[in-house]
Amino acid sequence: LISTATMSKKKEMMAKAEALQKEMSNGVEEVQRIQKELTKCRDNIAKYDTQLQENIVVQKELGLLEAEGRVFKLMGPVLVPQDRDESKMNVDKRIEYINTELKRYRANEDGLVKKKDTAETVCITAQEKMQKLQVEAAAASK
């Protein structure tokens, strides 16, 4: 015969196991969600890094341009003359904007990495508790 205390203890362990399983499941979903956000964030960082490098090259080329040199902007299939100083100013503003976006995305990336680490810690803790519970259940059944 199984005593009422033993049955009660088994029910309690089952309830704990279910709660830990749910905690682990939620933690894994959170890690996956954060990983998707992190991937998007890193894609944007790569995109802006590329744009920054391109604009730095343009900035250097404009710096090499002689005073009487002409600047053209491609608009559709047509090259349209541009004011040299205006072109330099536009490139400088673009570089400034890109640097601001890069700082924002990098800060966001740091935050997401911390969130992911926290969520992973929750999963690991729940897994360790689950293993401990399984050991206790095995010991109780002997």
Concise summary:
This protein is mainly alpha-helical and 142 residues long. The protein is built from two helices and two strands; from the N terminus they run αββα. It has helices at 4-64, 84-141, and strands at 71-75, 78-82.
Largest sheet: 2 strands, antiparallel
Question: Could you report the average pLDDT, rounded to the nearest whole number?
Answer: 91
Q: Are there runs of 5+ residues with pLDDT below 50, and where?
A: none
Largest sheet, spatial ordering of strands: 1-2
Proportion of residues in helical segments: over 70%
Compressed to H and E, one letter per element, the order equals HEEH
Query: Shape from CA axes?
Result: rod-shaped
Number of helices: 2
Structural class by sheet pairing and helices: mainly alpha
Count of strand segments = 2
